[in-house]
Write a structure and sequence with these properties.
The protein is α/β, with parallel strands linked by helices. Helices cover 25% and strands 24% of the residues. It has a single domain, classed as Nucleoside phosphorylase domain (Rossmann fold).
Length: 261
């Protein structure tokens, strides 16, 4: 199989009722091992490659994920588009728990990660002014509205190093610049851009970050997370067949070439 669409997400996104696995691929890469084996199969008539970002059993914390190996492996399999569901906290009252955000900007507050494939003799500066695929983002937002899902068609994601959560002071600062907060978007999205892969982040809001004085128990977070996963599964399953085979309406396929790579 030669899947052109990949999904990098938590194991909760995978649903054997809608994803028919045909093969499992274990790859070695120039950057080490990916987070896990890649499951290749069929979802609603579309070939898809699925990779659990944190590995089976959630064994890789955000700051230890081998993002370069994950993106290299997807590229090696022939993946041209990546859908990336992730869990986030909200920094704004208008971005409510249970809602989905089609992220269109990010702010990077990570500290110790491997950010680029171009770390050798040749230096290449990839533009990330608009870091996400506009075509796929618009398609997911439109399909989400059609399905009646609580979805935002834009939002800024601030990515922190983890694994600790923010202090209240940090959270209040981040509120001035971003809408949601998480730990896994960077460098995953920029590496996808270097690899000229279209990338869409579907951020699932689980709770308000600690700027809010509203107490949130783990039981509430788990309930909202379960509901969000069901919504994202529904959104992905409905949108996959509508993703064009040709990539002619976005800049993603030429990102590295335009930077002189």
């Amino acid at each position: 199989m030669a899947p052109r669409i990949g999904i990098i997400g938590g194991t909760g996104v995978y649903d054997p009722r809608i994803f028919d696995i045909k093969e499992r691929v274990a790859l070695s890469t120039p950057y080490g091992a990916p987070s896990d084996v890649i499951s290749v199969g069929n979802m609603d008539g579309v070939e898809v490659a699925f990779l659990p970002r944190h590995g089976t059993g959630h064994v890789h914390p955000p700051h230890k994920i081998n993002y370069r190996a994950n993106i290299w492996a997807m590229k090696h399999l022939g993946v041209e588009r990546i859908i990336s569901p992730c869990a986030v906290g909200s920094l704004q009252e208008s971005y409510k728990p249970g809602e989905i955000v089609v992220v269109d900007q990010f702010i990077d507050f990570t500290k110790r990660r491997e950010y680029t494939f171009f770390d050798g003799a040749k230096t290449v500066h990839i533009s990330t002014a608009d870091p996400f695929c506009k075509e796929m983002g618009a398609l997911f937002a439109s399909e989400g509205r059609r399905l009646g899902l609580p979805i935002h068609d834009s939002g800024t994601y601030v990515c922190i190093e983890g694994p600790r959560f923010s202090t209240r002071a940090e959270s209040r600062m981040f509120r001035n610049f971003a809408d949601v907060i998480g730990m896994t978007l960077v460098p995953e999205c920029q590496l996808a851009r270097e690899a000229e892969i279209c990338y869409t982040s579907l951020a699932m809001i689980t709770d308000y970050d600690v700027w809010s004085e509203e107490p949130v128990g783990i039981d509430i977070v788990l309930r909202v997370m379960s509901e969000n996963i069901d919504r994202v599964r529904k959104l992905i399953a409905a949108t996959l067949p509508k993703i064009p085979k040709e990539r002619s309406c976005c800049e993603c396929p030429d990102a590295a070439r335009e930077a002189g790579a």
